[in-house]
Design goal:
Length: 395
Amino acid sequence: MRCDNAQGVLHANMLTFRVAVRRPARRHFLAAFIALAVSASCAISEHPNFQNVHVDNLEPRRDTNGQIIDAHDGCLKYFDGRYYLYGTAYGKSAGYSINNRFRVYSSRNLKEWDFDGELLESPPDGVYYRPYVVYNAFTRKYVLWYNWYPTLWAGKVGVAIGDTPVGPFKIVNAEVEVAGYVDGIGDGSLFVDSDGAGYFIYTTIGQNHSIRIQRLTPDYLGATNDRSGVLGIGCEAPALFRNRDRYYALFDSTCCFCSSGSGVRVLIASSPLGPYTEKGDINRQAGGKPRVTAQQTFVAQVLTPAGPAFLWMGDRWGSRPDGEKGHDLQFWSPPLHFTPEGMIEPIENTPKWSARIQIGTKDDLVRHPYLWPKKRDPHPVKIDPCTGTSLAEDE
């Protein structure tokens, strides 16, 4: 969670940081030093306001205009006193159109949501999924990583930057090179460690949907050669986070917009690149059926009076009350519980819940959200890859 006073500390160290990038032996020490300075600054300047937050998983979330929130397979982040929900908007499509677009909504209390527009201005034609945003304290930029397909399923990874959490984001590299890149990249998400190092956990489609983790460059605009081994195969929708001194990689089998949901396999390590050890599945009952009929999209960190807590987020594909895919519901779990040994306890399938969570600041901004005009798809998908059913051209 970023705080404003940290900016002065980071600005004073920018020159040293640039030198450190050219001197790898000092880079990790410097990153740790700056992280400590930032933490101290934040601890002094931030006075969190905690209130009871009520989450309803039975009803669609709506924005302040009364519209159902259309933001899927993305992330929930806290920047500068507000929560930001990033996701893919599907509208009335089946999910494979060049008119998929990335949207962002913001809120101070996880209940009242403002629509802040679309993230990318006129990106290259393709099918876009899974937007994930982090803040780079060194460059003072918000960085967006996403998965896209010029043609299905020739997956690529793109990266874009913005000056604010809502962008608009400018694409700086539409074909980021990561391990296994030549075989097509699928789902992926971002994680930033306490020392400022960034990581990308992702699926390689052409290598049996294998899961890997790769360390990012200091500016988060590319990937280094530091990477993990294969964590699993036949999988997608990965997430990576840290709780205390343990790192958690969560993912499960490919789902393809499955209405039945998927499991959540938990792998744990003492360092972000592993080695990881699989410890179990927190979203499957004894008979194998998912506890929550949803596919993982993210594990969000929030602040409580007891310290950081983690919310598991999953998309409930096929749950739309009106038949419009963009209105599929999203499940947010109560704060996850951890055993003394570090394992995550099974996800609670809770329809409604409340918890004391940090509340952000009031927002009086006048919004003029950017909307990307809909295009005619020159190569529409005619057969649904998941169900095998025929699709109308406007889908």
